[in-house]
Amino acid sequence: MRTAVPEFPEARLRELADRYAAAVAAKRRRIWLGCALLVAAAIAAGWMGDVNFGSFVENFWRFPAYFVSIAPKFSFATAWVDLSDWLWGLPRWTRLLGDTLLIAYMGTLTGALCGFALCFLASANLVKSRTTVFVTRRVLEFCRTVPEIVFALIFVLAFGLGPLPGVLAIAIHTAGALGKQFAEVVENIDSKPIEGVAASGGNWLQIVRFGALPQVISNFVSYALLRFEINVRGAAVMGFVGAGGIGQDLIEAVRKFYYSDVSAILLLIVVTVMLIDFVTERVRHRLLGLEDSAR
Amino acid sequence: MNSFDFDNRAGIAQRYPEVFRPDWWHRAGIAIGIGSAIALFLYGIVQLDIPFHRLSDGLNRLGEFVRLMVPPNPGSWAEVLKYLHALGETVSIAFLGTLGGALLALPVSLLAARNVVANRIVHVLTRRSLDTIRGVDTLIWALIWVGVVGLGPFAGMLAVICSDFGTFGKLFSEAIEVADKNPAEGVRSSGGNHLHSVRFGLLPQVFPVLLSQVLYYFESNTRSATIIGIVGAGGIGLQLAEQIRVLEWQKVSFLILLILITVSAIDWMSGKLRFAIIGKRAIA
After folding, report:
1. I want to staple B187 with a disulfide (CB 3.0 to 4.6 A). Which of B82, B138, B197, B272 is the partner?
2. What is the predicted pLDDT for the residue at A101?
3. Are B130 and B254 contacting, i.e. CB atoms less than 8 angstroms apart?
4. What pLDDT was estimated at residue B12?
5. In this model, does residue B282 exceed pLDDT 50?
6. d(CA A76, CA A82)
7. Residues of A in contact with B231 (CB under 8 A)
8. Predicted confidence (pLDDT) per residue in B10-38, tens digit
9. Secondary structure of chain A in the HEC alphabet?
10. Does B152 sit within 8 Å of A269, measured CB to CB?
């Protein structure tokens, strides 16, 4: 019995093998070219950014040494006293952390409302006028491309030191970022409910309210929560430029070499950020789960 | 044709009671949610002592700043060159920071992925340390590195490497965990060891995804690299903060314009590259 495996004549086989080798070689060449470009770019960037491995190796010990020096001094005999020494500023820091969270919250809420108002204007499937869509999009892009801390720097000069510039800066940045994400959600919705409302004589606001909104609201809340998480981190450094919150104390402690304060404040920030991450992630999963089960 | 008689609301309501009966529980839930959101906002106003009387003054001053900003004017050619150099530093910080972070994160993310390392303790520990690194903002890392290697863009680069290490570690390990496990099993069944199955079964699948994430973060790092100069870690942020402090508004607007152009150029470029690498469909 003969097997059914087709056997090509030698010449044909060779031709196929050669072609395969050529294809593999071409792919390899492309990959090597990409790697070479990457290395060249890295060297150029290293030259531009003053990368100095000599000084890096020489000074690297300071990195762990820094963490050692900011680590709190503990001994077993006096552990309790040491702990209270280390966290001596706890009441003040907790209040400042609360301020940071409030700055993040107020900024996120204000920004989310602005982004909510603008996102429908930036969606090509709801607005006929190309100009409106284009202009709204550029405004949102401007709001999110300028870093929030730059807004904060300018606002501190306009409104004076304190949490107000921080809240405003975060609000503007959030409006830009959420406006874009919201608009993307709106552009992906099912068009039938919109057509339905339009066909039964609804005006533009009614189309948005009854046709678009029910489809997108849970996604919106989920994005807003994610943004809140990001903004908590952003609000923690607002104090660097005088815009309120815990950042002010942190940068002072770093600049004045109050080592144990640095570690205490850093620890508090990290714990808070992690807690917020954990809670919002739970809520977001529930929201998205609800949406999936409703479908 | 006898369809609905819309004047006869009562009749329709009788036929479809569930549509017309208000769901009070649902409404109460929404009301409570909105009410507590507003209450927290008001509490914030009181607690943070937001000075509303300063709001109108501040807005006036802000308007004045904006008037002073136009037209953007860098001053002289020497200044332009200085700013372009700072911009180059910023892009270098973002580029090498992203690259370094990604290279460091790749091996660690394998440790943090449940389908590569079966040991629970290893991956929980890895994840928690990545979370801790990620919880510290880039600006704070920059502050720390300035203390270690001194002022300048190198400190900024190391700061971006640190914060990206945390982010990439998490993102990569998530991408690795959702990978199809059949190819890895195939490699194992044809006699490959564990490392082979990772190299030939897993990495080819996830590599394009990882590359696209790296490109995406290159964009976002360009944004964050523009500001780490504020704490002295080099780049255009240093110039920007300085010009804002000395109230040179025309230079400020020039610098902001420069940043906007650079960021959108990099956006555009990396978008193209991402499409080229994994195709348009996979991103959306």
Report:
1. B197
2. 93
3. no
4. 77
5. no
6. 9
7. 240, 251
8. 777 777 777 777 778 888 888 998 999 99
9. CCCCCCCCCHHHHHHHHHHHHHHHHHHHHHHHHHHHHHHHHHHHHHHHCCCCHHHHHHHCCHHHHHHHHHCCCCCCCCHHHHHHHHCCCHHHHHHHHHHHHHHHHHHHHHHHHHHHHHHCCCCCCCCCCHHHHHHHHHHHHHHHHCCHHHHHHHHHHHHCCCHHHHHHHHHHHHHHHHHHHHHHHHHCCCCHHHHHHHHCCCCHHHHHHHHHHHHHHHHHHHHHHHHHHHHHHHHHCHHHHCCCCCHHHHHHHHHCCCHHHHHHHHHHHHHHHHHHHHHHHHHHHHHHHHHHHHC
10. no
Are the beta carbons of B150 and A141 separated by less than 8 Å?
no
Interface test with A, best of B41, B139, B214 (most A CBs within 10 A): B139
Place of tokens 């770019």: A41
State whether residue A105 sits within 8 Å of chain B by CB.
yes
Give the number of other Cβ atoms within 10 Å of residue B225's Cβ. Answer: 33
In this predicted model, what pLDDT tens digit does every residue of B85-96 receive, in sequence order? 889 899 999 999
Alpha-carbon gap: A11 to the closest alpha carbon of chain B (Å): 31
B54/A159 touch (CB, cutoff 8 Å), yes or no: yes
Q: Do A154 and B65 touch (CB under 8 A)?
A: yes
The separation between CA B111 and the C-alpha centre of its own chain, rounded to angstroms, equals 24
- Check B140 against A234: CB less than 8 A apart: no
Confidence of residue A116 (pLDDT cuts 50, 70, 90): very high
Number of other CB atoms surrounding residue A50 within 10 Å: 17
**pLDDT band, residue B66 (cuts 50/70/90):** confident
Q: Which of B54, B55, B256 sits opposite A146 (nearest CB)?
A: B256
**What is the ipTM score, two decimals?**
0.79
Q: Does B117 touch chain A (CB under 8 A)?
A: no
Nearest beta carbon to residue B131 from set A51, A52, A274: A274
Confidence of residue B1 (pLDDT cuts 50, 70, 90): very low
B140 in contact with chain A, both atoms CB, cutoff 8 A: yes
Q: Any chain B CB within 8 A of the CB of A244? A: yes
Mean pLDDT of A277-281: 85
B153, two tokens: 């863009």
Residues of B in Cβ contact (< 8 Å) with A240: 139, 230-231
**Integer Cα distance of B192 and B200 in angstroms:** 9
| Chain segment B95-151, per-residue pLDDT in tens | 999 999 999 998 888 888 877 777 788 878 888 888 888 888 888 889 888 888 888
Tokens encoding A232: 């908590």
